[in-house]
Amino acid sequence: MNRDEVKELLMTIAELFPASAPKASDRVFLIWEKSLADISFETGYRALNRYVINARFAPTISDIIGEANKIESENSALLDRVRNTFVEICDMWGAKKSKELYDIFCDLVELNGPDLNKSLGIALDMKEAAIEYIKDK
């Protein structure tokens, strides 16, 4: 996250937890910015949303990083499932369709961005369609 994104995240935390949120200062922004530098704003915001569900106090940097790591791990597992589904489809269709299907896979993941569940759903639908097509031939 960059400084502006950290400020937005901290402003949201302050609105949600006015009594326990970190006090805004340049030092606080700098510490949060350096600590969250490897986390995208989208993932950080999703981590905050997850944290808020059961929280009574404002999250710490560690809380946000912990939730963000869980999100990244889940995303990685979903991406593997999407990728493996496309490999199965490529195996069904044969080598001549593999390049075309791989391009579709890349477009699908890029199009849906963080919504890998949607990408997985589309991939599974495509797999079912491929199975039906092959059965009918």
Find the count of extended strands (DSSP E, 2+ residues): 0
The main β sheet shows up as: none
Estimate the mean pLDDT confidence: 83
Low-confidence stretches: none
Following the backbone from N to C, one meets helices and strands in this order, namely: HHHHHH
Helix content: over 70%
Strand proportion, as a percent range, falls in: under 5%
In quaternary terms, these chains amount to single chain
**Backbone CA Rg:** 20 Å
Coarse structural class: mainly alpha
Distance N terminus to C terminus? 51 Å
Shape annotation = elongated
State the helix count: 6
What would you note in describing this structure?
This protein is mostly helical and 137 residues long. Helices cover 79% and strands 0% of the residues. The longest helix is centred in the middle third of the chain and has 33 residues. The chain starts with a helix and ends with a helix.
SSE blueprint:
Blueprint: H1 3-16, H2 26-35, H3 41-52, H4 61-93, H5 95-112, H6 116-136
